[in-house]
Structure prediction request, 104 residues.
Amino acid sequence: MTHLLVAWSKITHMPTRPAAVTVRYWAAARAAAGRDSDDVEPGTLAQVLGEVRARHAGDERFARVLGVCSVLIGDRPVGARDHDAVRVSPGDVVELLPPFAGGS
Prediction:
């Protein structure tokens, strides 16, 4: 019984890392990134997108696509708001949606 209590004590006192922000890529953004998503540290939207750009530095295609993407945090469009003023919290999902073509 003593060993169980010691083990439980160690588990419950482990340091925790702040939850990441998931940046999810759609359509052409996914193709340019070469993956579905990236996990980055929370902060302002400008910081989150800056980290994404740094991870794909030198990839002109990715930079071009990112420049035309609509940005949502969860299901809320960011629109024209200043990215330095938009907070992205731990656990949030940032959706990067390039323009879609379609129709009938």
